[in-house]
Amino acid sequence: MNKLDTSNTNKLIDRFGRQVTYVRLSVTDRCDFRCQYCMSENMQFLPRQKLLTLEELASVGKTFSSLGVNKIRITGGEPLVRKNIIWLFEQLGQMEQIKDLTLTTNGSQLHKYAKNLKSAGVTRINISLDSLKAKRFNDITRVGDLKQVLKGIDSAIAAGFDKIKLNSVIMKNHNHDEILDLVAFAIERNIDISFIEEMPLGIINSHGRDKTFYSSDEVRKDIEAKYSLNSSNKKTSGPSDYYDINNSDTSVGFISPHSHNFCENCNRVRVTAEGRLLLCLGQEHSVDLRDIIRRNPGDLEKLRNSLIEAMKLKPKSHEFNVNVEPVILRYMNMTGG
Ligand code: SAM
Ligand code: SF4
Question: What is the set of domains in the chain, with CATH numbers?
Answer without folding.
Answer: 22-335 (3.20.20.70)
